[in-house]
Protein backbone atom coordinates (compact mmCIF):
# COMPACT_ATOMS: atom_id res chain seq x y z
CA UNK A 1 0.00 0.00 0.00
CA UNK A 2 1.24 3.51 -0.70
CA UNK A 3 2.49 5.31 2.36
CA UNK A 4 0.23 7.99 3.81
CA UNK A 5 2.02 11.28 3.82
CA UNK A 6 0.98 13.97 6.27
CA UNK A 7 2.49 16.77 4.24
CA UNK A 8 1.86 17.79 0.71
CA UNK A 9 4.97 18.85 -1.08
CA UNK A 10 4.33 17.74 -4.62
CA UNK A 11 4.62 20.38 -7.29
CA UNK A 12 3.46 20.74 -10.85
CA UNK A 13 5.85 18.83 -13.11
CA UNK A 14 8.71 20.78 -14.70
CA UNK A 15 8.85 23.97 -12.60
CA UNK A 16 12.44 25.04 -13.13
CA UNK A 17 14.49 27.97 -11.89
CA UNK A 18 17.90 28.87 -13.24
CA UNK A 19 19.07 30.65 -10.04
CA UNK A 20 21.20 28.99 -7.36
CA UNK A 21 18.19 29.03 -5.07
CA UNK A 22 14.74 27.53 -5.07
CA UNK A 23 11.82 28.37 -7.28
CA UNK A 24 8.38 29.41 -6.08
CA UNK A 25 7.59 25.80 -5.22
CA UNK A 26 10.72 25.36 -3.12
CA UNK A 27 12.43 23.18 -5.74
CA UNK A 28 16.24 23.58 -5.84
CA UNK A 29 17.51 25.39 -8.89
CA UNK A 30 20.05 23.62 -11.16
CA UNK A 31 22.72 25.80 -9.56
CA UNK A 32 21.78 24.73 -6.04
CA UNK A 33 21.35 21.09 -7.12
CA UNK A 34 24.94 21.07 -8.39
CA UNK A 35 26.20 21.90 -4.90
CA UNK A 36 24.07 19.37 -2.99
CA UNK A 37 25.42 16.18 -1.33
CA UNK A 38 24.91 12.95 -3.29
CA UNK A 39 23.30 9.83 -1.77
CA UNK A 40 22.37 6.36 -2.95
CA UNK A 41 18.87 6.61 -1.53
CA UNK A 42 16.73 7.92 1.29
CA UNK A 43 14.23 6.78 3.91
CA UNK A 44 11.00 8.40 4.98
CA UNK A 45 8.66 7.72 7.88
CA UNK A 46 4.90 7.63 7.58
CA UNK A 47 2.49 8.87 10.24
CA UNK A 48 2.79 5.52 12.06
CA UNK A 49 6.59 5.75 12.09
CA UNK A 50 6.88 3.01 9.53
CA UNK A 51 10.05 3.31 7.47
CA UNK A 52 9.97 3.39 3.68
CA UNK A 53 13.20 3.08 1.75
CA UNK A 54 13.92 4.41 -1.73
CA UNK A 55 17.11 3.96 -3.76
CA UNK A 56 18.36 5.08 -7.14
CA UNK A 57 16.83 3.04 -9.93
CA UNK A 58 13.61 2.32 -8.01
CA UNK A 59 10.30 3.07 -9.61
CA UNK A 60 8.25 4.97 -7.05
CA UNK A 61 4.80 6.42 -6.54
CA UNK A 62 4.40 10.12 -5.82
CA UNK A 63 1.29 11.85 -4.55
CA UNK A 64 0.02 13.94 -7.48
CA UNK A 65 0.19 17.70 -7.29
CA UNK A 66 -3.00 19.25 -5.94
CA UNK A 67 -4.15 16.11 -4.13
CA UNK A 68 -4.37 16.56 -0.33
CA UNK A 69 -2.55 13.73 1.48
CA UNK A 70 -5.68 12.85 3.41
CA UNK A 71 -7.37 11.78 0.20
CA UNK A 72 -7.39 8.09 -0.46
CA UNK A 73 -6.13 7.43 -3.94
CA UNK A 74 -6.31 4.19 -5.85
CA UNK A 75 -2.80 2.93 -6.66
CA UNK A 76 -3.20 3.60 -10.39
CA UNK A 77 -3.99 7.27 -9.66
CA UNK A 78 -0.52 8.05 -8.28
CA UNK A 79 2.22 9.66 -10.30
CA UNK A 80 4.93 7.17 -11.24
CA UNK A 81 8.61 7.98 -11.61
CA UNK A 82 12.05 6.42 -11.74
CA UNK A 83 14.52 7.71 -9.15
CA UNK A 84 17.63 8.78 -11.06
CA UNK A 85 19.64 10.60 -8.43
CA UNK A 86 19.34 11.59 -4.76
CA UNK A 87 20.91 14.67 -3.18
CA UNK A 88 20.45 16.63 0.03
CA UNK A 89 20.91 20.11 1.43
CA UNK A 90 22.89 19.55 4.63
CA UNK A 91 22.88 23.03 6.13
CA UNK A 92 19.65 22.48 8.08
CA UNK A 93 19.35 20.42 11.25
CA UNK A 94 17.40 17.83 9.34
CA UNK A 95 18.83 17.37 5.86
CA UNK A 96 16.46 18.27 3.06
CA UNK A 97 16.46 15.42 0.59
CA UNK A 98 15.54 15.72 -3.07
CA UNK A 99 15.42 13.16 -5.84
CA UNK A 100 15.89 13.76 -9.53
CA UNK A 101 13.26 11.63 -11.21
CA UNK A 102 12.31 10.63 -14.73
CA UNK A 103 8.56 10.50 -15.18
CA UNK A 104 6.38 7.70 -16.39
CA UNK A 105 3.45 9.67 -17.72
CA UNK A 106 -0.13 8.52 -17.58
CA UNK A 107 -2.12 8.19 -20.82
CA UNK A 108 -4.21 11.19 -19.70
CA UNK A 109 -1.10 13.36 -19.43
CA UNK A 110 -0.01 12.29 -22.91
CA UNK A 111 -3.47 13.10 -24.31
CA UNK A 112 -3.08 16.66 -22.95
CA UNK A 113 -0.04 17.03 -25.22
CA UNK A 114 -1.03 14.91 -28.22
CA UNK A 115 -4.61 15.49 -29.24
CA UNK A 116 -4.82 12.35 -31.36
CA UNK A 117 -3.61 10.09 -28.55
CA UNK A 118 -6.41 7.66 -27.75
CA UNK A 119 -6.55 7.02 -24.01
CA UNK A 120 -9.31 4.48 -24.58
CA UNK A 121 -6.57 2.29 -26.06
CA UNK A 122 -4.52 2.23 -22.82
CA UNK A 123 -4.98 0.37 -19.55
CA UNK A 124 -5.36 1.93 -16.11
CA UNK A 125 -1.94 0.72 -14.99
CA UNK A 126 -0.25 1.76 -18.20
CA UNK A 127 2.45 4.44 -18.15
CA UNK A 128 4.61 5.88 -20.91
CA UNK A 129 8.28 6.41 -20.14
CA UNK A 130 8.94 10.09 -20.82
CA UNK A 131 12.13 12.03 -21.44
CA UNK A 132 11.06 14.52 -18.75
CA UNK A 133 12.90 14.96 -15.45
CA UNK A 134 12.09 16.87 -12.26
CA UNK A 135 13.34 17.32 -8.74
CA UNK A 136 10.92 15.93 -6.15
CA UNK A 137 11.16 16.29 -2.37
CA UNK A 138 11.68 13.01 -0.50
CA UNK A 139 8.54 13.84 1.50
CA UNK A 140 6.37 13.43 -1.59
CA UNK A 141 7.24 9.77 -2.14
CA UNK A 142 4.65 7.19 -1.19
CA UNK A 143 6.25 3.82 -1.89
CA UNK A 144 8.21 1.92 -4.47
CA UNK A 145 6.16 0.06 -7.05
CA UNK A 146 7.03 -2.67 -9.51
CA UNK A 147 6.79 -1.57 -13.12
CA UNK A 148 7.11 -4.10 -15.93
CA UNK A 149 8.33 -3.53 -19.45
CA UNK A 150 5.79 -4.87 -21.90
CA UNK A 151 6.90 -5.63 -25.46
CA UNK A 152 3.94 -6.82 -27.46
CA UNK A 153 6.20 -8.21 -30.20
CA UNK A 154 8.05 -10.56 -27.82
CA UNK A 155 7.15 -14.22 -27.97
CA UNK A 156 8.74 -14.73 -24.54
CA UNK A 157 7.26 -11.72 -22.74
CA UNK A 158 7.26 -12.59 -19.02
CA UNK A 159 3.95 -12.54 -17.19
CA UNK A 160 2.86 -9.26 -15.60
CA UNK A 161 0.70 -9.59 -12.48
CA UNK A 162 -2.65 -7.83 -12.33
CA UNK A 163 -2.58 -4.33 -10.82
CA UNK A 164 1.08 -3.85 -11.72
CA UNK A 165 2.23 -0.78 -13.61
CA UNK A 166 3.56 -1.54 -17.07
CA UNK A 167 5.10 0.39 -19.90
CA UNK A 168 5.02 -0.44 -23.62
CA UNK A 169 5.72 3.01 -25.11
CA UNK A 170 8.31 5.75 -24.77
CA UNK A 171 7.24 9.39 -24.97
CA UNK A 172 9.43 12.20 -26.25
CA UNK A 173 8.15 15.72 -25.56
CA UNK A 174 10.07 17.69 -28.20
CA UNK A 175 9.24 16.86 -30.91
CA UNK A 176 6.24 15.00 -29.54
CA UNK A 177 6.64 11.38 -30.41
CA UNK A 178 5.51 8.03 -29.10
CA UNK A 179 7.54 4.95 -29.90
CA UNK A 180 6.65 2.36 -30.95
CA UNK A 181 3.56 3.80 -32.63
CA UNK A 182 0.41 3.67 -30.55
CA UNK A 183 -1.30 1.45 -33.08
CA UNK A 184 -2.44 -2.10 -33.11
CA UNK A 185 -1.91 -4.90 -35.60
CA UNK A 186 -5.63 -5.62 -35.77
CA UNK A 187 -7.78 -4.99 -38.85
CA UNK A 188 -9.05 -1.85 -37.11
CA UNK A 189 -5.46 -0.64 -36.41
CA UNK A 190 -6.51 0.33 -32.86
CA UNK A 191 -4.10 -0.62 -30.08
CA UNK A 192 -4.81 -3.27 -27.46
CA UNK A 193 -6.43 -2.05 -24.24
CA UNK A 194 -5.76 -4.85 -21.73
CA UNK A 195 -8.55 -3.61 -19.44
CA UNK A 196 -11.34 -4.21 -21.94
CA UNK A 197 -10.07 -6.21 -24.95
CA UNK A 198 -9.58 -9.88 -25.67
CA UNK A 199 -7.02 -10.46 -28.42
CA UNK A 200 -6.21 -13.47 -30.59
CA UNK A 201 -2.64 -13.80 -31.82
CA UNK A 202 -1.13 -15.40 -34.91
CA UNK A 203 2.51 -16.31 -34.16
CA UNK A 204 3.72 -16.97 -37.72
CA UNK A 205 6.73 -14.78 -38.52
CA UNK A 206 5.07 -12.89 -41.38
CA UNK A 207 1.89 -12.33 -39.33
CA UNK A 208 2.86 -11.84 -35.62
CA UNK A 209 -0.38 -9.94 -35.21
CA UNK A 210 -3.05 -9.63 -32.52
CA UNK A 211 -6.69 -9.16 -33.41
CA UNK A 212 -9.59 -7.95 -31.30
CA UNK A 213 -12.10 -10.73 -30.82
CA UNK A 214 -14.95 -8.50 -31.91
CA UNK A 215 -13.08 -7.40 -35.07
CA UNK A 216 -12.54 -11.05 -36.10
CA UNK A 217 -16.20 -11.77 -35.45
CA UNK A 218 -17.37 -8.71 -37.36
CA UNK A 219 -15.25 -9.60 -40.37
CA UNK A 220 -16.27 -13.27 -40.04
CA UNK A 221 -12.72 -14.66 -39.77
CA UNK A 222 -14.05 -17.90 -38.37
CA UNK A 223 -13.47 -21.52 -39.39
CA UNK A 224 -16.53 -23.55 -40.18
CA UNK A 225 -15.26 -26.98 -39.15
CA UNK A 226 -14.00 -28.12 -35.78
CA UNK A 227 -12.41 -31.20 -37.34
CA UNK A 228 -8.63 -31.17 -36.81
CA UNK A 229 -8.77 -27.78 -35.12
CA UNK A 230 -6.40 -28.79 -32.29
CA UNK A 231 -3.80 -29.97 -34.79
CA UNK A 232 -4.19 -26.87 -36.95
CA UNK A 233 -3.51 -24.73 -33.87
CA UNK A 234 -0.54 -26.88 -32.88
CA UNK A 235 0.96 -26.62 -36.38
CA UNK A 236 0.71 -22.81 -36.52
CA UNK A 237 4.45 -22.33 -36.32
CA UNK A 238 6.00 -19.36 -34.49
CA UNK A 239 9.29 -19.84 -36.34
CA UNK A 240 8.21 -20.50 -39.91
CA UNK A 241 5.47 -19.36 -42.24
CA UNK A 242 5.14 -22.98 -43.33
CA UNK A 243 2.73 -25.04 -41.28
CA UNK A 244 4.55 -27.65 -39.23
CA UNK A 245 4.12 -31.06 -40.82
CA UNK A 246 5.00 -34.57 -39.75
CA UNK A 247 6.55 -35.33 -43.10
CA UNK A 248 9.33 -32.90 -42.27
CA UNK A 249 10.45 -35.58 -39.83
CA UNK A 250 12.81 -37.02 -42.38
CA UNK A 251 13.78 -40.61 -43.11
CA UNK A 252 12.27 -43.59 -41.37
CA UNK A 253 13.82 -44.22 -37.96
CA UNK A 254 14.41 -47.24 -35.79
CA UNK A 255 12.03 -48.10 -33.01
CA UNK A 256 12.98 -46.10 -29.97
CA UNK A 257 12.35 -46.69 -26.29
CA UNK A 258 10.67 -43.87 -24.46
CA UNK A 259 11.35 -42.70 -20.94
CA UNK A 260 8.10 -40.81 -20.90
CA UNK A 261 5.71 -43.72 -21.16
CA UNK A 262 7.09 -46.77 -19.43
CA UNK A 263 7.51 -49.70 -21.78
CA UNK A 264 6.08 -47.88 -24.77
CA UNK A 265 7.84 -47.46 -28.07
CA UNK A 266 7.42 -45.10 -30.92
CA UNK A 267 8.37 -45.90 -34.46
CA UNK A 268 8.14 -42.80 -36.61
CA UNK A 269 7.30 -43.51 -40.19
CA UNK A 270 5.54 -41.82 -43.06
CA UNK A 271 2.27 -43.58 -42.37
CA UNK A 272 2.04 -42.65 -38.69
CA UNK A 273 -0.12 -39.66 -37.98
CA UNK A 274 0.91 -36.58 -36.08
CA UNK A 275 -1.92 -37.27 -33.67
CA UNK A 276 -0.49 -40.71 -32.92
CA UNK A 277 2.99 -39.31 -32.34
CA UNK A 278 1.62 -36.76 -29.88
CA UNK A 279 0.39 -39.58 -27.65
CA UNK A 280 4.01 -40.19 -26.76
CA UNK A 281 4.57 -36.67 -25.46
CA UNK A 282 3.45 -35.28 -22.07
CA UNK A 283 -0.29 -34.62 -22.27
CA UNK A 284 -0.04 -31.27 -20.48
CA UNK A 285 2.58 -30.03 -22.91
CA UNK A 286 0.53 -31.04 -25.94
CA UNK A 287 -2.60 -29.46 -24.48
CA UNK A 288 -0.80 -26.14 -24.02
CA UNK A 289 0.69 -26.33 -27.54
CA UNK A 290 -2.82 -26.77 -28.93
CA UNK A 291 -4.32 -23.72 -27.26
CA UNK A 292 -5.35 -20.67 -29.23
CA UNK A 293 -2.95 -17.86 -28.35
CA UNK A 294 -4.84 -15.15 -26.52
CA UNK A 295 -4.44 -12.24 -24.14
CA UNK A 296 -6.67 -9.73 -22.42
CA UNK A 297 -9.81 -9.83 -20.32
CA UNK A 298 -10.93 -13.29 -21.43
CA UNK A 299 -7.53 -14.34 -22.69
CA UNK A 300 -5.64 -14.95 -19.47
CA UNK A 301 -4.68 -11.41 -18.53
CA UNK A 302 -2.41 -8.66 -19.81
CA UNK A 303 0.20 -10.79 -21.60
CA UNK A 304 -1.96 -13.91 -21.87
CA UNK A 305 -0.56 -17.27 -22.85
CA UNK A 306 1.76 -16.20 -25.69
CA UNK A 307 4.97 -17.31 -23.99
CA UNK A 308 3.68 -20.68 -22.78
CA UNK A 309 2.01 -21.73 -26.02
CA UNK A 310 4.96 -20.69 -28.17
CA UNK A 311 7.40 -22.51 -25.86
CA UNK A 312 5.17 -25.62 -25.85
CA UNK A 313 4.85 -25.68 -29.65
CA UNK A 314 8.62 -25.31 -30.05
CA UNK A 315 9.27 -28.21 -27.66
CA UNK A 316 6.72 -30.42 -29.41
CA UNK A 317 8.21 -29.65 -32.85
CA UNK A 318 11.72 -30.30 -31.57
CA UNK A 319 10.71 -33.65 -30.14
CA UNK A 320 9.01 -34.66 -33.38
CA UNK A 321 11.88 -33.41 -35.54
CA UNK A 322 14.71 -35.11 -33.68
CA UNK A 323 16.30 -37.55 -36.10
CA UNK A 324 17.70 -39.93 -33.54
CA UNK A 325 17.21 -40.98 -29.94
CA UNK A 326 13.97 -41.23 -28.03
CA UNK A 327 11.02 -39.02 -28.79
CA UNK A 328 11.40 -36.81 -25.76
CA UNK A 329 11.07 -33.27 -24.56
CA UNK A 330 13.49 -31.37 -22.31
CA UNK A 331 13.44 -32.65 -18.73
CA UNK A 332 12.61 -29.13 -17.53
CA UNK A 333 9.68 -28.63 -19.93
CA UNK A 334 7.38 -27.93 -16.98
CA UNK A 335 9.49 -24.93 -16.03
CA UNK A 336 9.40 -23.55 -19.56
CA UNK A 337 5.62 -23.26 -19.70
CA UNK A 338 2.98 -22.07 -17.28
CA UNK A 339 1.35 -25.31 -16.15
CA UNK A 340 -1.74 -23.43 -15.04
CA UNK A 341 -2.42 -23.01 -18.77
CA UNK A 342 -3.28 -26.73 -19.01
CA UNK A 343 -7.03 -26.32 -19.25
CA UNK A 344 -9.09 -27.59 -16.33
CA UNK A 345 -12.41 -29.15 -17.30
CA UNK A 346 -14.07 -25.81 -16.51
CA UNK A 347 -11.58 -23.90 -18.63
CA UNK A 348 -11.88 -26.46 -21.44
CA UNK A 349 -15.62 -25.83 -21.45
CA UNK A 350 -15.01 -22.07 -21.69
CA UNK A 351 -12.47 -22.59 -24.48
CA UNK A 352 -14.93 -24.74 -26.41
CA UNK A 353 -17.27 -21.74 -26.59
CA UNK A 354 -14.69 -19.46 -28.22
CA UNK A 355 -15.35 -19.09 -31.95
CA UNK A 356 -12.86 -20.95 -34.17
CA UNK A 357 -10.95 -17.92 -35.34
CA UNK A 358 -8.59 -17.87 -38.30
CA UNK A 359 -5.91 -15.37 -39.13
CA UNK A 360 -6.95 -12.69 -41.64
CA UNK A 361 -3.42 -12.77 -43.10
CA UNK A 362 -2.38 -16.42 -43.37
CA UNK A 363 -5.88 -17.90 -42.94
CA UNK A 364 -4.44 -20.32 -40.35
CA UNK A 365 -6.20 -21.32 -37.14
CA UNK A 366 -5.65 -18.85 -34.30
ZN1 LIG B 1 -9.56 -4.54 -33.95
ZN1 LIG C 1 -1.38 -15.55 -39.55
What do you see in this structure?
With 366 residues, this protein is an alpha+beta fold. The protein has two domains: 30-179, Bromo adjacent homology (BAH) domain (SH3 type barrels, Roll), CATH 2.30.30; 198-352, no CATH class. The protein contains nine helices and 16 strands. It has helices spanning 30-35, 107-113, 213-218, 229-234, 274-278, 283-289, 306-321, 333-336, 345-352, and strands at residues 37-39, 41-45, 51-55, 59-62, 79-89, 96-105, 126-137, 141-144, 147-149, 165-172, 177-179, 198-202, 209-212, 256-257, 265-266, 294-296. Strands 1, 4, 5, 6, 7, 8, 9, 10 and 11 form a nine-stranded mixed sheet that branches. A hairpin with a 4-residue loop joins strand 10 (165-172) and strand 11. 34% of the residues are buried. The chain binds zinc ion (2 copies). One zinc ion (ZN) is lined by residues 186-188, 190, 212, 215.
SSE map:
Layout: H1 30-35, E1 37-39, E2 41-45, E3 51-55, E4 59-62, E5 79-89, E6 96-105, H2 107-113, E7 126-137, E8 141-144, E9 147-149, E10 165-172, E11 177-179, E12 198-202, E13 209-212, H3 213-218, H4 229-234, E14 256-257, E15 265-266, H5 274-278, H6 283-289, E16 294-296, H7 306-321, H8 333-336, H9 345-352
Parallel strand pairs: 7-10, 9-10
Antiparallel strand pairs: 1-5, 2-3, 4-5, 4-8, 5-6, 6-7, 10-11, 12-13, 12-16, 14-15
Bound molecules: zinc ion (2 copies).
Domain BAH: 52-182
Protein name: BAH domain-containing protein
Region (Disordered): 1-30
Amino acid sequence: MPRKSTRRLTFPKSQKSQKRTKNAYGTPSPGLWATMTKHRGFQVLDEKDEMYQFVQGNVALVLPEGVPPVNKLAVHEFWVCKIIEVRSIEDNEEPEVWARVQWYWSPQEIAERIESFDIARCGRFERLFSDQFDLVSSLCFSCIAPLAEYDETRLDQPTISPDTFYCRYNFKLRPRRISPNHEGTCLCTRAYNPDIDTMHFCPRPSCRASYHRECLLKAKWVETSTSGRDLRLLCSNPDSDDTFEMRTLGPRRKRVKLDLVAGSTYAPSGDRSLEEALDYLPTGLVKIAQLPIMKGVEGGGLVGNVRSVVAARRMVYEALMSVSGPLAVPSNWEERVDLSEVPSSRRAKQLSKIPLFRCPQCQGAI
